[in-house]
Write a structure and sequence with these properties.
Mean pLDDT: 81
Shape: elongated
Low-confidence stretches: 111-126, 768-781
InterPro entries: MMPL_dom, Mycobact_MmpL, SSD
Strand content: 5-15%
Keywords: Cell membrane, Membrane, Transmembrane, Transmembrane helix
CATH superfamily of one domain: Multidrug efflux transporter AcrB transmembrane domain
Radius of gyration: 31 Å
Strand order of the largest sheet: 2-3-4-1-5
Protein name: MMPL family transporter
Organism: Nocardioides daeguensis
Number of strands: 11
Largest sheet: 5 strands, antiparallel
Subcellular location: Cell membrane
CATH class of one domain: Mainly Alpha
Distance between the termini: 32 Å
Length: 781
């Protein structure tokens, strides 16, 4: 492997413009794809194979006019004022009429207050009535009892995943007209968010911090710029390619963001490892930039290849879950990682070829010799020696700290986060609170309930529908029920059920489960079978499905990654220790994430207000990404220890020597990843915020507590037994030469041969003769 990559780096360095032209063509193809196909992403998603999705697919097939995406707009006025003044009602009526005039907006249903005993209306839900204009109700608009809030609810004709950005913008433009000169504020729901560029101030700050770390690590602005350029090209092609395919694949808005996160982090880190190795070869061994770059690609490039492979394996294993949304997210992220590896092995040496000897300044070359004498007194050397000296207490302390941090994970609540946890200055949170005050929390997450005749059974008549509505309104925790539509043959009736409780409340979950019971009295009495979908139902089903496949997923990635690490390290113990350390770090990561988003700890620091659920897919996708990235650090750190062992350092000396060689760049890489992921924590999107925090905390814990602290302590205890491999297994698995032993032998033989040629030339010159000596395999010029 190292010999192959050495040759690849050598040729890329020799022909930089040829290699760069190829990557420019790739960028051009992506830009052309976006220009021709456009971009189509949304906040909606499908959870295949669940009851909620099955019900929704049934509605789509039978009554497409009521199966479209739901949306709402809340109109509010300053406290103490009424919104139902003539001029304000007129402004809202005109805006609502304009919305219903749009091609993609369906006709409005009629929503009535909860019927029956008034005492059944909960304290947290206020009575409401239709908004009236010119003696007639305004379609889809409800006025709160206090007269300060209007809720406008409507449906699109198609799912939100099929909406173009122009469709959403047209709705926003229409409702915003009501704000002109009226004192009204229009607050659209999350489903009416226009497509946003997934890069903001937080991400820019993260990249800036990454750039500073690169300059401090590499000691040169030129050298520091190369990893950034490589990472940006990688995510440009990866994320741009995802956008270009978004009209063909159903893609959530979080998909490109995840690709951007992972692509930036690994793109910078992988290039950093190779550039750092090249500079060390130049400064420590006095090699020319050309030869140093080729050797760096051959050695550090081998580690990059296998580190990237573990991340790709962990991500692509998400496809076994069978959820289309997760499959697309995983493949996009895996593609950006693959691009980062390919760019680091081809484009980076080409750029190094353009930079040439300028990769190391004259000053750096002169001062390096002085620094070499001080390396025995470096921070890394002091740290690893202290860790080894107190290895047993270190292991106990780290295990205890991570165990305590993992405690909140037992209280993790999975679901779909609502605007209730968003920052109070966001329009989504303000709209959520306004709906809750004026109409009750349940209006933030209505349920879609279907009724079909029990087979064999008679069609559902209007009389049966009315009886069913009355029975549903008498169910515990139901605020209102409204018919949305019915099939002509009486085989399907669709109802909207408004709970009294909020979308994330346990009471709403209990209502969904109760309505799904096959022996429910109201269903048997009316000879119907009920189906439930909607926000809360989808959340429940997705959480249940993911919980069922997590053990299978973990088994797949752990098994495959153990095999990869066994090939890299030619060891049984090291892969097992690496995986055990990861289990500690991932549990602690889930604990911290739960404490912030579910318990509300340090919420103000991350613009999170109140506790709520963690997005159902985050634990499993964070596990995949963090496992792959943790193994990155394991490969770079421990492969250096193995290299020291192979070249004569045994016992604790190999741990100290290997740690001294690799820890600085591993720490820099971890800081870069933390900076990049932290930039996404301050996104307005709660899902992006949760992913960013989980990944940043996960890298912090795994890199600094597990890899650079726990791992040296454990390696010192197992001593040279760390590299034990049964003889039969040693003969069975191939030697991938990650440490570059074969490459070193080849280069040594080449140097000896060149020295012999030089001696012969000197001897011939001394005899007064001349000769032409040519390199084997090349024609004489």
């Amino acid at each position: 492997m190292s010999t192959l990559l050495y040759r690849l780096g050598h040729r890329a360095f020799d022909r930089p413009w040829f290699v760069l032209a190829g990557w420019l063509v790739a960028i051009g193809i992506v830009i052309a794809g976006i220009a021709l196909n456009g971009v189509s992403v949304s906040s909606g998603f499908k959870v295949d194979g669940t009851e909620a999705q099955t019900v929704l697919d049934r509605v789509t097939a039978e009554l497409p006019e009521v199966s479209g995406g739901q949306a709402s707009v809340v109109f509010v006025v300053p406290e103490g004022q009424r919104i139902d003044t003539p001029d304000r009602v007129e402004a809202m009526a005109r805006a609502i009429d304009a919305v219903f005039g749009l091609d993609q907006v369906a006709a409005p249903p009629k929503l009535e207050p909860a019927a029956g005993d008034p005492s059944r209306v909960p304290e947290n839900a206020q009575p409401f009535r239709p908004l009236m204009y010119d003696g007639a109700p305004v379609p889809g608009a409800l006025l709160s009892a206090r007269g300060d809030t209007v809720l406008f609810q409507f449906q699109f004709k198609v799912p939100t995943t099929s909406l173009a950005n122009s469709d959403v913008t047209a709705v926003l433009d229409a409702v915003e007209r009501s704000e002109t000169g009226t004192g009204i504020t229009a607050l659209p729901s999350d489903s009416l968010k226009a497509l946003e560029v997934p890069v903001g101030a937080g991400e820019v700050i993260g990249l800036t911090v990454a750039g500073i770390v690169l300059v401090l690590t590499l000691g040169s602005v030129v050298a520091a710029g190369l990893p950034l350029v490589n990472a940006l090209v990688g995510v440009g092609i990866g994320v741009g390619g995802a956008y270009a395919l978004s009209t063909v694949l159903s893609m959530s808005s979080a998909t490109p963001v995840l690709g951007l996160m992972v692509g930036l982090a690994v793109g910078i880190d992988y290039s950093l490892f190779i550039v750092n190795r090249q500079r060390r070869l130049i400064l420590d061994q006095g090699l020319a930039a050309h030869e140093a770059a080729s050797r760096a690609v051959g050695t550090a490039g081998s580690a990059v290849f296998f580190a990237g492979l573990t991340v790709i394996v962990a991500l692509t294993a998400l496809t076994i879950i069978g959820i289309t949304m997760l499959t697309v997210m995983a493949l996009v992220a895996a593609s950006t990682v693959a691009l980062a590896v390919l760019i680091a092995l081809t484009m980076l040496p080409a750029l190094l070829g353009l930079v040439g000897e300028r990769i190391c300044s004259v000053k750096a070359r002169h001062t390096r010799r002085e620094r070499l004498a001080d390396e025995a007194h470096s921070v890394a050397d002091h740290w690893v020696k202290r860790v080894i000296k107190y290895r047993w207490p270190v292991i106990a302390i780290v295990a205890t700290l991570l165990g305590v941090a993992a405690i909140p994970a037992a209280s993790m609540e999975l679901g779909i986060p609502t605007a209730a946890t968003a920052s109070s200055d966001s329009s989504a949170r303000q709209g959520y609170d306004a709906i809750s005050r004026g109409f009750g929390e349940g209006f933030n997450g209505p349920l879609l309930v279907t009724a079909e005749p029990t087979h064999p059974g008679p069609p559902i008549t209007p009389a049966v529908t009315a009886k069913l509505i009355q029975a549903l309104q008498q169910q515990h925790n139901v605020a209102a029920v409204v018919p949305l539509g019915a099939g002509r043959s009486g085989q399907l009736v669709v109802l909207s059920v408004i709970p009294k409780s909020g979308p994330s409340d346990q009471a709403t979950t209990d209502l969904v489960r109760a309505l799904r019971q096959p022996d429910l009295d109201l269903a048997k009495d009316n000879q119907v079978t009920l189906g439930v979908t909607g926000y809360t139902a989808i959340s429940i089903d997705m959480s249940d499905k993911l919980a069922g496949v997590i053990p299978q997923y973990l088994g797949v990635i752990v098994l495959l990654s153990l095999l990869i690490l066994m090939l890299v390290f030619r060891s049984v113990i090291v892969p097992l220790v690496a995986t055990a350390g990861f289990l500690l770090s991932i549990l602690a990561t889930f604990g911290v994430t739960t404490a912030v988003f579910t318990w509300g700890w340090f919420g103000s620091l991350f613009a999170v207000e109140g506790g709520g659920p963690i997005m159902s897919f985050i634990p499993i996708i964070a596990t995949g990404i963090l496992y792959g990235l943790a193994m990155d650090y394991q490969v770079f750190l421990v492969s250096s220890m193995r290299d020291a062992y192979v070249h004569g350092h045994h016992g604790m000396r190999s741990v100290v020597h290997g740690f001294d060689q690799a820890s600085r760049v591993v720490v820099a890489a971890a800081l870069i990843m933390i900076a990049v992921f932290s930039g996404f924590i301050f996104s307005h999107d709660i899902v992006v915020k949760q992913v960013g925090l989980a990944l940043a905390v996960g890298i912090l814990i795994d890199a600094f507590f597990v890899r650079v602290t726990l791992m040296p302590a454990v390696m010192a205890i197992v001593d040279d037994r760390a590299w034990w491999l049964p003889r039969w297994l040693d003969r069975l698995i191939p030697n991938l030469d990650v440490e570059g032993d074969r490459l070193a032998t080849l280069l040594s033989q080449r140097s000896s041969a060149q020295a012999t040629v030089n001696d012969e030339l000197s001897a011939l010159s001394g005899n007064g003769s001349t000769a032409s000596i040519q390199e084997p395999g090349r024609p004489q010029r």
